[in-house]
Amino acid sequence: MHKINIAIDGPASSGKSTIAKIIAKDFGFVYTDTGAMYRGVTYLAIKHQVSFLDETALIELIENYPITFKQTDWGQAVLIQGEDVTQALRQPEVTNHVSEVSALPGVRDHLVKVQQKIAASGGVVMDGRDIGTTVLPQAEVKIFLVASASERAKRRYKENQDKGIKSNYNTLKKEIEQRDYTDSHRETSPLKQAKDASLVDTTGFSIDEVVATVESIVKEKM
Ligand code: C5P
């Protein structure tokens, strides 16, 4: 049976990875978090004291320290040279600089090729910002997941609270809005709904309700 690919795009904290992981599990697909790849380069730049503007040096980091994924009971671990960096990639320092790094065309070019290779034989649920427009324009299912900025900040705030991380709601909301602005105004592959993507607004809906909506769209294409 031909395996379809599912592209899930949308702004920061719209629930993409939560939904994508559940869909992948339910249909037996492989989940790929492309945001983790951009976060990985940003993490490496901080670790190796490489400027966020030095495209050549950043590409060297990508080549020298490939990012890999390991499926786990709870979802997916991100590894760099065997080291589990899943939590490190969520640090505020990485989050607040990742949009600068991801705006560089050479960095995108490299990572898009890696992502296209992963999806080459189908059966992938990939989430990001440009999956439906640039990485997998032929994906059989394209979802553009959105939610209001206040709802997204609320979710992030609660997530932090549950993890025992102190945060400020207004700061989180500002950071989310800033990242969305940078991601949707860059020249190369900006965050944008693909013409043939289904728009799913998750504001006010539970995870189960969003999963049911997305799964009904997927089933139509299988
Ligand atoms: O999805 P996540 O919030 O982890 O993504 C982190 C950042 O990586 C985004 O804000 C964006 O700058 C970048 N990104 C991107 N293209 C993708 C995935 C993520 O530019 N396909």
TrEMBL record:
What cellular component GO annotations does this protein have? cytosol
Reactions performed catalytically = CMP + ATP = CDP + ADP; dCMP + ATP = dCDP + ADP
Provide the binding site for ATP.
Answer: G10, P11, A12, S13, S14, G15, K16, S17, T18
Q: Does the keyword Protein biosynthesis apply?
A: no
* UniProt KW keywords: ATP-binding, Cytoplasm, Kinase, Nucleotide-binding, Transferase
Task: Outline the segment boundaries, as ranges, of region: Disordered.
Answer: 176-195
Q: Where is the Cytidylate kinase domain?
A: 6-219
Q: Which CDD domains match?
A: CMPK
User: Biological process GO annotation list?
Assistant: nucleobase-containing small molecule interconversion; pyrimidine nucleotide metabolic process
Q: Does this entry carry the keyword Electron transport?
A: no
One Pfam family name is Cytidylate_kin
One example of the protein's molecular function in GO is: CMP kinase activity
Alphabetical list of InterPro entries matching this protein: Cytidylate_kin, Cytidylate_kinase_dom, P-loop_NTPase
Q: Where in the cell is it found?
A: Cytoplasm
Q: Which SUPFAM superfamilies match?
A: P-loop containing nucleoside triphosphate hydrolases (SSF52540)
Q: What is its EC number?
A: 2.7.4.25
Concerning its family, UniProt says: Belongs to the cytidylate kinase family. Type 1 subfamily.
- What HAMAP family has UniProt attached to this entry? Cytidyl_kinase_type1
User: What's the protein name?
Assistant: Cytidylate kinase
* Originating species: Tetragenococcus muriaticus 3MR10-3
